[in-house]
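Give me structure tokens for this 404-residue protein.
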Amino acid sequence: MKPGPLTALRIIEYSTSIAAAASGKVLADLGAEVVKVEPPRTGDPARYHGPFPDDLPDPERSGLFLYLNANKRGITLDPVLPTGRELLQRLLAEADVFLHNWSPAEAETLGLEYEQLRQRHAHLIVTAVTPYGSTGPYANYRGADITACAAGGVSVGTGFRDRPPLTLPLALGAHFASVAASAAILLATFGRDATGRGQFVDVSETDVLAILLAGYGIPTYIYRGVTGIRAGRHMSLGLYPNAVFECQDGFVCIDCPQLAQWNRLLEVMGNPSWLNEPRYRDRRQITEQYPQEVDALMAPWLMARDKATIFTDTQAQRIPTGPVNTMKNVVEDAHLRHRQYFVTVEPNDMGPLTYPGAPYRFSQTPWAIRRPAPHLGEHNEAIYGGRLGVSREELLLLWQMGII
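Here you go.
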């Protein structure tokens, strides 16, 4: 198996969040050596999230943990204890990157705040991926995807106006933050190569969402006064139809920002007679005042077709649409199968599992799953013994004392 492009990069990941773990996975998939540090006995909280085979909870069989931690090595360690803290410092002395999700107060308690680490490891790139960043009035607040989506301005545009706002599904905000953190880490390595010094990379999930998803609506508000407030299935920032529509076997998304695209959609629909009414010619007015009325006019055509037919017919006319797929649809998708997108991984003590594949393709240093996610403490002996020179007798003692 060919090595990845980041094989020379050593990362210590000590975190309990999806965002930090997902960032470590992005870099591990590129070939970086990522050592996952988990609390002794209990392990990472993601081990208890699931989903689990047959819905039977098992910390070694969590679908979330297995996915987020493929390609990583795993050790256990309690840095709250003095000996554990010193072992972590010895690991950081040999690392390029320290990736964590601790607030400033938590980092200080653990002896892991950046200024302390900088004095001891001047070369180290320390990256904190937190809900609100490491500065400002909310830096030490606890948070989650739901609060980051609200603070970042995403929830104000998600959901129905007469119901509570919604968050992004399946910790999507955390995954956005993870990609931002991974890109920032790579930029920091370029800086370190040029200067010989590490730096602190501070990633706020709230800021990422505010810039990436909410920020693009600012010009629309400045120039047109459109707020982007939640409008149910429709997107109030755009022109009708930019929504998810029900069809014969589920839902399909249709978005026609260009007038030519809208006209081609109407031709595919047979140029319905209601087009002759002036009320249905101003798409901005439709979006802002009566989208459900036009939804009802389009419904007979949509409900007479399944989402695959709608997708095929509209794509042939260069109309932006897409089926809203279930997980079963995605796994069985002919296009993804033709591209060989999904990969098979065999975690230890389990049968084969299907994982999402490469999000990019490199010819010389390809993406690959090189190892399954580790069992709890699976690489303690290899890392502590092989790298730090800790004897087996000492390892046993450290385990009995709850340090590893």
